[in-house]
């Protein structure tokens, strides 16, 4: 191999006069915002990463881009009627198109910064792709807290960011830069959310509580049926089917076609009705203020009255809610594919899969002791339809569970039966079996 000095590229570069490659120490926040707007953003704001309200973001961003100092939060508006229509095909095209636009805006900003000698990273990626993290956070940057810190809105009761002007009909992105800025934005002084509870009324699964509670499992199981875990469940349905005829008993032709469409054109949401009916935002609120009855009749009721399949876990709060609130909608029991790959993920995921309706009347403290491959102790407390997970053993336990960690994970995934595990003493119990049974019903699978 020739020496580096003999390489044509090296020789050409060394023959050129030196260029000024010094990275600017800081840039104007006004320039960055204008760059974002010129690149196609509908709104943008700049914040420093070292802010106290971005502590959670730092833990995500610094491993991704160690030189990070500044964040540019991006907002792109969506066409409202496209999201409001009961035709999910139209809504999903709008989601996909705007996602592509946000990524394109981020790309243009990074290119412009690069040309000025500023290292920057477009962390916008519309769909979570860090698959090795499945079961935890698969995305690289949480755009919502960045947007809130940057003054581009606040979280509504439906867990979407509501922009003061555009409402919740927006998608977000984040660009990360290595330079400091001369000034930064601050959070909005008020929450644009009207607390009208229309999102509560429209959600087909009851995932949004009028008291602010959010049932992650109910939302994920239905709305993300053709994403990640729902897709994995579909694959397992195919694998478990004895024949094509047996598969057709489990999956309708329409469901198979819908999955094909998601695979071909991009994964499709099943609902997002909470976003569709939200009247908040200066550009959005006028029809709601002028005639609430007409707004309800034209926007909310078509989604409520739509005949559709709602995907639920068996014996879940969502199943009971649909049958009670929307008897004209068909429920279908599925698995959402959320299986804990580790004890740590099992414990961290319990608040997300806990069904408070199933815990009515239950007050219990459980001590878990995991042995073997993962050694860990934890306390789980259920009281007043709330759940708390603590490290170590706290208080007096109603039930003590000692389990080999690998066996416990197999039990959770349905690969090992509890009776078999008890007989082999891979799982040992002390305390009331009735309490343990009631505890288990709070986590339908």
How would you describe this protein?
The structure is a single chain. By secondary structure, this protein is an alpha+beta fold. It has three domains: 156 residues, 3-Layer(aba) Sandwich (NADH Oxidase), CATH 3.40.109; 135 residues, no CATH class; 99 residues, 2-Layer Sandwich (Nonspecific Lipid-transfer Protein, Chain A). 40% of the residues lie in helices and 17% in strands. The protein is built from 19 helices and 15 strands. It has a five-stranded mixed beta sheet with strand order 13-12-11-14-15. The longest helix is centred in the N-terminal third of the chain and has 28 residues. The mean pLDDT is 93.
Present the secondary structure layout:
Elements: H1 8-15, E1 26-27, H2 29-38, E2 43-48, H3 55-64, E3 70-77, H4 80-84, H5 88-115, E4 120-122, H6 143-149, E5 154-155, E6 161-162, E7 170-177, E8 180-181, H7 198-202, H8 216-223, H9 228-240, H10 244-250, H11 253-265, H12 273-277, H13 286-290, H14 292-304, E9 309-312, H15 317-325, E10 330-333, H16 343-353, E11 364-371, E12 376-383, E13 386-391, E14 399-404, H17 405-412, H18 418-423, E15 427-431, H19 433-441
Parallel strand pairs: 1-8, 9-10, 11-14
Antiparallel strand pairs: 2-3, 3-7, 4-7, 5-6, 11-12, 12-13, 14-15
């Amino acid at each position: 191999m020739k020496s580096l000095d003999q390489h044509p590229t090296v020789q050409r570069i060394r023959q050129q006069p030196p260029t000024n490659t010094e990275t600017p120490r800081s840039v104007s926040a006004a320039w960055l915002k204008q760059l974002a707007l010129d690149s196609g953003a509908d709104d943008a704001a700049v914040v420093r990463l070292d802010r106290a309200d971005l502590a959670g973001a730092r833990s995500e961003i610094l491993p991704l881009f160690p030189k990070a100092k500044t964040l540019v939060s991006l907002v792109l508006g969506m066409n409202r009627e496209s999201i409001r229509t009961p035709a999910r095909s139209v809504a999903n095209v709008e989601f996909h198109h705007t996602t592509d636009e946000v990524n394109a805006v981020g790309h243009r900003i990074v290119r412009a910064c690069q040309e000025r000698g500023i290292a920057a990273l477009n962390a916008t990626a519309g769909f979570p792709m860090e698959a090795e993290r499945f079961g935890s956070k698969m995305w690289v940057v949480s755009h919502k807290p960045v947007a809130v810190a940057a003054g581009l809105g606040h979280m509504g009761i439906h867990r979407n960011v509501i922009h003061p002007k555009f409402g919740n009909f927006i998608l977000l992105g984040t660009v990360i830069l290595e330079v400091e800025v001369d000034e930064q934005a601050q959070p909005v002084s008020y929450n644009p959310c009207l607390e009208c509870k229309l999102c509560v009324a429209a959600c087909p699964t009851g995932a949004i509580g009028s008291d602010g509670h959010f049932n992650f499992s109910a939302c994920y199981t239905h709305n993300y049926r053709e994403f990640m875990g729902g897709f994995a469940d579909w694959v397992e349905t195919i694998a478990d089917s004895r024949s094509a005829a047996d598969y057709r008993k489990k999956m309708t032709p329409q469901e198979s076609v819908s999955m094909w469409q998601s695979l071909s054109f991009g994964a499709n949401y099943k609902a997002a009705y909470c976003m569709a009916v939200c009247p908040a935002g200066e550009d959005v609120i006028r029809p709601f203020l002028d005639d609430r009855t007409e707004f309800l009749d034209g926007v909310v009721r078509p989604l409520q009255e739509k005949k559709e399949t709602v995907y639920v876990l068996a014996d879940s709060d969502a199943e009971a809610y649909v049958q009670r609130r929307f008897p004209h909608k068909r429920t279908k029991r599925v698995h959402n594919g959320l299986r804990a790959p580790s004890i740590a993920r099992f414990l961290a995921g319990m608040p997300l899969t806990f069904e408070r309706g199933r815990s009515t009347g239950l007050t219990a403290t459980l001590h878990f002791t995991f042995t073997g491959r993962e050694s860990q102790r934890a306390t789980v407390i259920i009281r007043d339809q709330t759940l708390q997970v603590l490290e170590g053993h706290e208080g007096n336990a109603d039930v003590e569970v000692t389990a080999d960690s690998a066996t416990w994970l197999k039990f959770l995934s349905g690969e090992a039966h509890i009776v078999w595990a008890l007989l082999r003493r891979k799982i040992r119990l002390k305390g009331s079996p009735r309490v343990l049974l009631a505890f288990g019903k709070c986590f339908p699978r």
